[in-house]
C-alpha cells in the first residue's frame, strides 16, 4: 500500500496568513488615511489663513478697480460733473458721512431690506412646502409664481403707489413681490432633487403631513432652499432700490435709493456714485458675512467641502 501522505497545508496556511496580514495592514492604512483626512478637514484655520483666502482677494480686487478708475479719469480727463475720480467721490462720501446723510440713508434701507426679506422668508417657506405637497396645486400656481419671478418688481411701484400712497407700505409691498417668488421657486427646485427613497423612508417611519415637511423635506431640500434665499435677498434689495428711486416724498423715509434720486435731480455724479457704491458695498458684505459662510457650512455638513 502506498504510504499515507499528510496534506501539505503549511504553504497554504502561510499564504492565507500573509494575505490576512496584508489585507489587515491595508485596511489599517486606509482607516488611518481617512482619520488623517478628517483631522485635516476639521482643523481650525488661523487668522492669517482666513485673511489670505477670504479677505485679501476681494480687497485686492476692489483696490485694482479703484486704480483702473483713477487711471481712466487721468487719461480721458472728463468733466468732474460727468465722471468724477475716486478722490472726488471719496470727498463726497466723507461729507455725506459727516452731515449724517449717508448713515441715515444706509440705516433706513438696511432696515427695510432686512425686515422685508425676513417677512418674505416667513411667507414663502410654508407656501413652498404647501405647494410641494399637492401636485394639482403646483400645476395651477407654479406658472404664476414663475411669471411673478420673471416680472421686474419695479413694475409694481406705480400700482403700489396707487394702492398705498407714498408710504413705507409701498416699499415693503414691492420688496415682498420681488423676494417671495424667488424663494418659493428655489425651495421647489430643492424639493424636486430629493431622492424618492428618502421620502418613502420618512413615511415608513411615521412622518406625514407637516411633520414630513419639516423633518424630512426641508432638511433634504436645503441646498435649493439656500439658493432661493440668496436669490430672494438679491431680488428684495434690487426691488427696494427701485421703489426708493421712484417713490419719493410723502411719509417715505430717505434711503439709498432716495440718495440716488437726489444726485440725479441735482446732476451731481459724485452723489450718484456715492449711493451706487454704498448699495454695492451692502450686497458684498451680506454675501461675505452671511450667504458665503452658510453655503460653505451646508456643503461641509454634507461632506462636499473639506474645510
TrEMBL record:
Q: Which Pfam families match?
A: BPD_transp_1 (PF00528)
InterPro entries referenced in this protein's UniProt entry, alphabetically? MetI-like, MetI-like_sf
Q: What residue spans carry the region label Disordered?
A: 1-24
One GO CC term, this protein: plasma membrane
Biological process terms from the Gene Ontology for this record are: transmembrane transport
Ranked from the top, the taxonomy reads: Bacteria, Bacillati, Actinomycetota, Actinomycetes, Micrococcales
Domain (ABC transmembrane type-1) spans 106-290
- Give compartment(s): Cell membrane
**What keywords sit in the KW lines?**
Cell membrane, Membrane, Transmembrane, Transmembrane helix, Transport
Write down the membrane topology. Multi-pass membrane protein
- Kindly provide the name given to this protein in its UniProt entry: ABC transporter permease
Q: What is its main location?
A: membrane
So what family is this one in? Belongs to the binding-protein-dependent transport system permease family.
Keyword Transcription listed? The answer is no
TM segments?
55-76, 110-132, 144-165, 171-191, 245-263, 269-291
